[in-house]
Amino acid sequence: MTQRRSAVTPYRVVLFFATVFALTTLIFLVHSNLFSQRREFQESDYIMTFYVAGHLAAGGRADELYPNPDARSFVDSPFDRAAHALLPNLHKQSTGAYMYIPLVAGVFAPLSFIDPNWSLLVWQVLSVLALGACCYLLSHVTQVTSHDMFFLSFLFAPIFLTLWAGQLGLTFGLLPLCVGYVLVLKQREFIGGLVWSLLLLKPQFFLAAAFVAITLALMRRHRAFFGMTIGVLALIGLTILIFGIGPTTQWLVSHRVSDATYSSGLQGIPSHLITGLPANLMILFPVEQRAAVKLPLYAAAAVLWIFGLWFCFKLGKSHEDQARHISLSLVIGLFFSSLTLPHLLYYDLCLLLPVGVLLIARNGPLSGHIQSRWMAIFGWIVISVFLPLLLAFAKNKVLPLVLEIILSSLLIALLWHFNRHSQLTRN
d(Cα 341, Cα 348) in Å, to the nearest integer? Predict the structure, then answer.
């Protein structure tokens, strides 16, 4: 009797490598927090930003979260001074900055009572659990095994950088995005919209969900849009109730300071990790010319979003099934977010994870197109390969723009492909 051998396929080889890399990454994160020099980790995004914000919120000092309304940078802001007072090993050249809604600071208040490195480790554990939950949700849509998807996601470099830096992208970004997406697919659109409103905590993900909700509203399905609107109003009301009108107003006004920081070239923004087209193009100009080019660049980005809405509305009218139309709108919205948002950094590209999953999966609403699968695989590889390049050539301003040009080309190819498929379906 011949013993049957399991075939060694390219997929199994990649999965094995992904599993080893994922486990190595998790061991690295634990070791870095518990055994590395603590001075190094005081420079991490989490400790410099969210740990300090939680400390201020816990101490009733929410009015120190944001700079003065007339400030043009975060340098020497109340938050920057608080960060240096709380973290004595923080380099003098480092600038503490907080740009999120005060509710986020409230979430991190309990984690500010423990050691900064332990606090970061707890947040990384929560982020890994959020990633696992996203993979579980997407597995039900694509029929890909959830643990396979979990390990493969570690090969997407923005996931690693998000975890290492302690950013919000997985817990406050991907998780509510995926939960809302699955709810909308199941025609529980109002509840899905309510969940999507939580993306106000991580606004880089908010526009993609709003894009889907508006697309559905154009098709006379308003429940997701109403859910998002009510949820956003509730979050702002809760913020005012907990923190008062002062910090809430400071948060709204601080967006002008944040925008000025990106356009002025002042200290505090890692320009080599900027990946939004408006900012990448703006920093190519001298500082004194950036104010003049900012408005045209932002206007061009807005036009692209309007074109995307028209494109999705057109596809929705071509007798596409609902799950396919919702999924395609989400993919396009996430792609536009990765290209047009002015304040986007490399780790925020983790928002493209559902795009890769939906396009690469052999089952699911967008399956059956070998061209889109290879486009997604190519994009996945390119984005991941660019991380060491961006870190190695930190002073190169053109390299991030090259990445965005490649992603723009992939989006154009993808739009052309799905438009062609829609025309063939109608005929």
Answer: 10
Buried-state track 312-339, b at ≥16 Cβ within 10 A, e below 16:
beebbeeebeebbbbbbbbbbbbbbbbb
**Residue reference for tokens 């040009």:** 405
Q: CA angle at residue 324 from 338 to 349, to 5 degrees?
A: 15
| Backbone dihedral region for residue 46 (phi beyond 0: left; psi -120 to 50: alpha; all else: beta) | alpha
pTM score of the predicted model: 0.92
Burial class (CB in 10 A: 0-12, 13-18, 19+), 289: exposed
Location of structure tokens 């029929």: 143
End-to-end Cα spacing for the chain? 54
Measured distance CA(288)–CA(283) in Å, rounded = 11
Cβ-Cβ contacts under 8 Å for 92 (sequence gap 6 or more)? 84
CB 48 within 8 A of CB 79: no
Backbone angles phi, psi at 16, to 5 degrees: -65, -45
The residue type found at 46 is Y
Could you read off the pLDDT of 136-176 as tens digits, one per residue? 999 999 988 999 999 999 999 999 999 999 999 999 999 99
Instruction: Give the span between the Cα atoms of 66 and 76, in whole angstroms.
Output: 11
Can you tell me the distance from the alpha carbon of 161 to that of 384, in angstroms, rounded to the nearest whole number?
10
Question: What DSSP element (H or E) covers 412?
Answer: helix 398-426
| Residue 161 host element (H or E) | helix 157-165
Q: What is the Cα–Cα distance from 144 to 292, expressed in whole angstroms?
A: 48
Choice between 267 and 405, residue whose per-residue pLDDT is larger: 405
CA 204 from chain centre, in angstroms, equals 5
Place of tokens 């709003």: 210
Rounded to the nearest 10 degrees, how much is the dihedral formed by the CA atoms of 37, 46, 281, 305? Answer: 150
DSSP per-residue string spanning 277-307: HHHHHHTTS-HHHHHHHHHHHHHHHHHHHHH
Round the average pLDDT of the chain to a whole number and report it.
Answer: 88
Alpha-carbon distance of 209 to 225, in angstroms, equals 9
- pLDDT tens figures, 305-356: 999 999 998 888 766 688 899 999 999 999 999 999 988 889 999 999 999 9
The rounded distance, in Å, linking the Cα atoms of 333 and 306 is 11
DSSP symbols for 164-178 = HHT-SIIIIIIHHHH
**What residue type is 267 in one-letter code?**
Q
Q: Six-digit token pair at 179? A: 């939960």
Residue in 114, 234, 100, 116 with CA at minimum distance from that of residue 173:
100
